[in-house]
Amino acid sequence: MNILILGSGGREHAFAWKLSQSPLCDKLFVAPGNAGTAQVATNLPIGYNDFDAVSAAIREQKIDLLIVGPEEPLVKGIVDFLRNQPDLSHLRIVGPDAQGAQLEGSKDFSKQFMLRYGVPTASSQTFTAATLSKGLAYLETHSLPVVLKADGLAAGKGVIIAETLSDAQAVLRDMLDGQKFGEAGSKVVVEQFLRGIELSVFVLTDGKNYKILPEAKDYKRIGEADTGPNTGGMGAVSPVVFANESFLKKVEEKVVKPTLAGLQQEGIRYQGFIFVGLMKVNGEPFVIEYNARMGDPETEVVLPRIQNDFVELMVATAEGELDKIAVQVSPQTAVTTVVVSGGYPNEYEKGKIISELDRLDDVTAFHSGTLAQNGHILTNGGRVLALTAQANSLENAVRKSQEAARTVQFDGKQYRKDIGLDLIRYAD
User: What chemistry does it catalyse, as a reaction equation (predicted)?
Assistant: First the structure.
């Protein structure tokens, strides 16, 4: 089977690494990929939002299975585009159509969807430039802190927690009047702040059946003890010690089942991953957000724990046969530490030589922002590497992952030294 993965980050390298282990995988391609994916697949110099180039590559390379990594092409409708081409009717696709991808593409859509189908979530209201004055007045009556979310895709930067009324009103003006996030912020969801502990649950669905994959917790802020600005993710851990069996059962009954029933009721053909961002509040799950794809760096701790043939799992998803597969999960703990460029998530330089990768022992280095050039591997993004270790205990997995982060070298390297430590304390 010839397989194409769209994307260029650590998530896509993890997919490629996992798929390449299957005897069902004949030729594997990643578009556009990175220096890591090039070690297990053939990179194609194609932008994943260039639908014509993607469809041409599918024909040229005789692709049987397509896995869409990032959210942007999904929200822009790449699945609909490909399904509308008669000669590609054989193509198996893992990823929702544009309507399904609205779960991530529009915060307002997902909020209304949750309300319709009784999925527990924070109370909220949505405002536009035309209703800005109502929004400002609404904030005056709102408890603090308050969460403001740009409706559309804003590269992970569209969520702001305001601690004071004046900050909240300034942010709302900035988004709606000042167009801080452009079109993505033409609507703003103003939401109740939930106090609790965060985690993510991943669902794989073929449109009818579903499997719940290993849960994970990621670390969003740049600084230790969750300080500083938000990033795409500085590390992740799976499993999550506070997500016991009874809590995960509540997630399945109160979140997963009504979400999938709602999609079916609305006639949305959803074959792919649903990332459910949750807050555990007094033992109860509340949905913070949906994503229409796997998370990054969560994929780098979830996939290593899945013991199934991953090609088999993806084909069953695309063919509506997930009920025929039992997902096997390793009891080991996986921890990933993300090593980032100096200055990230603000201005940073690219093109720094990465060394000591060959010294890593019993750790998988998933490449996020890398480029192979003239015999060297160079930094080519804010998040550079996700260093994943597996062990029989959380402590050992943390130690091995952190050791790898110390070992790898490039100019300006930074990483968080506290990934997983809060969970060790929680377990104690």
Answer: 5-phospho-beta-D-ribosylamine + glycine + ATP = N(1)-(5-phospho-beta-D-ribosyl)glycinamide + ADP + phosphate + H(+)
